[in-house]
Design brief:
Domain Cytochrome c: 145-233
CATH superfamily of the largest domain: Cytochrome c-like domain
Pfam families: Cytochrome_CBB3, SoxA-TsdA_cyt-c
Strand content: under 5%
Shape: globular
Organism: Candidatus Marithioploca araucensis
Distance between the termini: 64 Å
CATH topology of the largest domain: Cytochrome Bc1 Complex, Chain D, domain 2
Protein name: C-type cytochrome
Keywords: Heme, Iron, Metal-binding
Order of helices and strands: HHHHEEHHHEEHHH
Helix content: 25-40%
Number of helices: 10
Number of strands: 4
Length: 255
């Protein structure tokens, strides 16, 4: 069983260790959904992303919002929701915002399988403990982010994978989704996603980008790239549509 030592990153169990029983079958389904959401979770997805595009290495990588760093601290109060949410409800938000789709019910097969996968990856994690590597790394910039500098860094460090236009690169074999995901445009995350926040994107970029060269950009440079991403177009915040529907009268009056 994996052990957590102070100051060290948790090491989740290996894929080969998934048990050969009903629970293991559910874990494998959850892993399939997580890694290839475009196929196994497609009925709830509205863009071209997979869960693993933001939670790197199949949800295993430290400082890339690993599942093992999240599962054990739920239920928790979440400012975004302004209430205590369960892990299953957190998954719903990912589908609505990061995947720009619709929320599955908490008892749907997809949510149950994803929860089982997160539970299995967290084998050996103490409940309620904030582990090193949970979420993203800290960013402490010393100046206001610059979109001009962000554009330069993007074109020299990021465009090779995500495209000059930021729209990513699809799989060469024609399979659904992207080999390198779009960072903006209609197939990316929407304005309500956590990654739409400059701070959150900067934290992710600092630790993980360019791919395989994490922690090579300075805090200021990571924030510059995040700000450059933020000014681009992407799907709208679906919560704004709800507010408009509530407070605006229907066409033709209704006052």
């Amino acid at each position: 069983m994996p052990v957590v030592n102070p100051g060290e990153y948790f090491v989740p169990p290996y894929i080969e260790d998934i048990p050969e029983n009903k629970y293991g079958e559910l874990v494998k389904i959850g892993r399939n959904i997580f890694v290839n959401t475009q196929v196994y979770g497609k009925r709830y997805v509205g863009n071209g992303l997979n869960c693993s595009h933001c939670h790197l290495s199949e949800g295993r990588k430290a400082n890339a919002a690993p599942l093992w760093g999240a599962y054990g601290i739920y239920p928790m109060y979440r400012i975004k929701n302004r209430e205590v949410v369960t892990f299953q409800e957190r998954i719903q938000d990912c589908f609505k915002y990061s995947l720009d789709g619709i929320a599955p019910t908490v008892d749907s097969p997809e949510v149950e399988a994803l929860t089982a996968y997160a539970h299995w990856l967290s084998t050996g994690v103490p409940v309620g403990i904030v582990l090193p590597g949970r979420g993203f790394t800290a960013v402490n910039r010393s100046r206001t982010p610059s979109t001009e500098n962000g554009e330069i860094i993007y074109k020299t460090q990021c465009a090779m994978c995500h495209g000059e236009d930021g729209l990513g690169y699809k799989h060469e074999d024609g399979s659904p989704g992207y080999m390198f995901p779009p960072l903006w445009g209609p197939d990316s995350f929407n304005r309500a996603a956590g990654m739409n926040k400059v701070k959150t994107a900067a934290q992710f970029i600092k630790a993980n980008m360019p791919l395989g060269k994490g922690f090579t950009l300075t805090d200021n440079e990571a924030a510059d790239v995040a700000f450059y991403m933020w000014i681009q177009s992407r799907p709208y915040d679906p919560r704004r549509s709800l507010i408009i529907n509530i407070f605006m009268p229907p066409p033709g009056g209704g006052g």
